[in-house]
């Protein structure tokens, strides 16, 4: 089964289950927005902690390089989905790709899990 991982799931896997991350993410999907969301996350934690960002950056780049990273761009179907379901365009790109691939969306986002219960799973369900 194909899986689409949003940034929240990728972050959680790499940080909490690094031994599972490589196998879980290999040959699966994400959108190119994940780079920006993960980069923003790294920026935030670099301001709050003394954690080695370079090693985390390397870890994230390594696992994402194993994935199929899809560019959604500005997509009318994703915008309409965002408007109809009252979610951000960011979230809509992940949902749009999931629907397009007839896949499951792996997310830790409770709002997405509530609004799309038939297509979402958490990393605990992998």
Automatic annotation (TrEMBL):
<keyword id="KW-0460">Magnesium</keyword>
<dbReference type="InterPro" id="IPR044153">
    <property type="entry name" value="PIN_Pae0151-like"/>
</dbReference>
<dbReference type="InterPro" id="IPR002716">
    <property type="entry name" value="PIN_dom"/>
</dbReference>
<dbReference type="InterPro" id="IPR051619">
    <property type="entry name" value="TypeII_TA_RNase_PINc/VapC"/>
</dbReference>
<dbReference type="Pfam" id="PF10130">
    <property type="entry name" value="PIN_2"/>
</dbReference>
<feature type="domain" description="PIN">
    <location>
        <begin position="20"/>
        <end position="113"/>
    </location>
</feature>
<protein>
    <submittedName>
        <fullName>PilT protein domain protein</fullName>
    </submittedName>
</protein>
<dbReference type="InterPro" id="IPR029060">
    <property type="entry name" value="PIN-like_dom_sf"/>
</dbReference>
């Amino acid at each position: 089964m194909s899986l689409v991982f949003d940034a929240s799931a990728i972050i959680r896997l790499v940080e909490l289950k690094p031994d599972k991350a490589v196998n879980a993410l290999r040959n699966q999907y994400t959108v190119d927005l994940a780079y920006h969301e993960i980069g923003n996350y790294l920026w935030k934690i670099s301001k709050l902690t003394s954690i080695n960002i370079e090693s985390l950056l390397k870890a994230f780049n390594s696992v994402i390089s194993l994935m199929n990273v899809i560019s959604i761009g500005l997509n009318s179907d994703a915008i309409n989905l965002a408007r109809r379901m009252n979610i951000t365009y960011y979230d809509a790109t992940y949902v749009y790709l999931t629907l397009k691939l007839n896949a499951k969306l792996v997310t830790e986002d409770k709002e997405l899990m509530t609004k799309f219960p038939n297509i979402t799973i958490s990393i605990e369900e992998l």
